């Protein structure tokens, strides 16, 4: 490695702030430590908005540090108020189990799990939280958190204006106990988090100082935003998922292929492992050459998340659709049994391009749908049961519908 790890992370734009920047720099560069990153099971996959700290964890493991990937089976039952105007809906046990399994699958795409010293380990905070009764929890930790201190947190102040529940108010105490538990059981001394989790993470640092007289640390990353400055997340309706059953490798590739020009260098640094010196040269490209850089970004990011073969297939599909070459077999497809004519709106919903007929109708009337290269603007248009139908939604979404 030519650079020390901390310099690598700084220059790639991962680091937002730290509870003790000098101490963290020393730990990451001169020691081998255990680091944890948590995510509540509010969905059955990570999305691109989650990946800044996950990619940072990938770099930490590359340099020999051990990742602890915490799935919030307990905190997911409460709901994190951070960055939200309303409370999260309660989930069933079945949904929680499905989501936890999906998160494990997502993490495994970026990190090596196993029994080695730097191999990642999955933990679930429900495993220790389920052992506390309400009285037990209050007896052990009730005096370690003061209400005035909790009220200073931005996540709390914002939700107080909209009726924050006592359930949500407990969230930061649970997350603090997570850090304490991982410190005691795994000697975990560093927590990674997004910028919106800073307050919750700091409560853990303070709790460990009170209970153990030791200093542990937090390192946060900046939040990922889209071209409009909106936080990328599932609740905003603009999520690009990691697991292929929610976002195909082709769609994942296309997301990065369509990166705005002013974000290309930033995304190369965060979502690929291309050396910084090479990124500096790629960032100088303009015009047609910049489009080739975006293809490199898309391929490398897709390769990390989905593997080399999937990245090649996505690249080939994009070339077939937009460049008039390569193999059309790699274009995303959907199998639909169609034995008789079907209305265009029913058809578009049946192949999962829209969640509702009202959404499909708007797109048709706006001229955003093409069937086998023909623009369709009539919401009463009747689809015929052909063997294969190429559907285009907007400028970038293509789907080959195969009649089975």
Features:
single chain; 404 residues; alpha/beta; 6-stranded mixed beta sheet; 5-stranded mixed beta sheet
Which helices and strands occur, and which strands form pairs?
Blueprint: H1 5-11, E1 15-18, H2 21-30, E2 34-39, H3 51-62, E3 66-71, H4 93-108, E4 121-124, H5 126-129, H6 134-141, H7 147-151, H8 154-160, H9 166-169, H10 171-186, E5 188-194, H11 198-212, E6 217-221, H12 249-257, H13 264-271, H14 276-282, H15 288-306, H16 308-322, E7 333-336, E8 342-343, H17 344-350, H18 357-365, E9 369-371, E10 374-376, E11 382-383, E12 388-393, E13 397-403
Parallel strand pairs: 2-3, 2-5, 3-4, 5-6, 7-13
Antiparallel strand pairs: 1-6, 8-11, 9-10, 9-12, 12-13
Helix pairs in contact: 10-11, 12-15, 12-16, 13-15, 15-16, 17-18
Description:
- This protein is an alpha/beta fold.
- It is 44% helix and 15% strand.
- The protein has 18 helices and 13 strands.
- It has helices at residues 5-11, 21-30, 51-62, 93-108, 126-129, 134-141, 147-151, 154-160, 166-169, 171-186, 198-212, 249-257, 264-271, 276-282, 288-306, 308-322, 344-350, 357-365, and strands at 15-18, 34-39, 66-71, 121-124, 188-194, 217-221, 333-336, 342-343, 369-371, 374-376, 382-383, 388-393, 397-403.
- The strands form 3 sheets. The protein has a 6-stranded mixed β-sheet with strand order 1-6-5-2-3-4, sandwiched between helices. It has a 5-stranded mixed β-sheet with strand order 7-13-12-9-10.
- Helix 12 packs across helix 16 (308-322).
